């Protein structure tokens, strides 16, 4: 369920699989005309929310940040792509600093497309279009985002254009490898006991004798039956415990479309 943090921040945590989650943070940042104290309070609260999100969660920071980040990514190469627009303002600097602190990237700037598909709001006085709405994710998960673009013509009953992102989460799921087998550990310390050592020697002699008879009868090659006999039959004498082979992981995907 959505969890309101303040009048400007709301979060929601969605399950993707048994042990994987995605956290979505929707925000409405203060505009340029707001006092600096309001902006500082907002970004401090947002930083506190980001700090509380588990590192394993997929993360999407979305909606109206009221910031212009510009097109020059030389200062923030890991925070924004090469396809921004316009110039950066003071709110943009605050947003870039936050993204840099939490290793986030602005997905709007990752894709080469027409300017009309980047901008989301028109300034009422200058009548210029600007990019002030964003979809932001972790830098490590940037390959999960396949596109982010403004949807011109969508009737949203607002002066902002709809921003759509195609997301395909990659999820690591653990499972047992095919053909796993139990491995037996041998407790060689038992050989210090005379009774155990004599029993082991007797079992080895019997196994070797059986192996020679099988080799003669079946004419196996490379001593297959012989080696298998004397390595497996006496094993129970020294057995202490068993363990399974380690598990592996393979990526699975979940497809989502964020509007």
From TrEMBL:
Classification via InterPro entries: Endo/exonu/phosph_ase_sf, Swc5/CFDP1/2
Gene3D superfamilies in the cross-refs: Endonuclease/exonuclease/phosphatase (3.60.10.10)
Domain of life: Eukaryota
The protein's name: Craniofacial development protein 2-like
Organism: Ridgeia piscesae
Lineage, top ranks: Eukaryota, Metazoa, Spiralia, Lophotrochozoa, Annelida
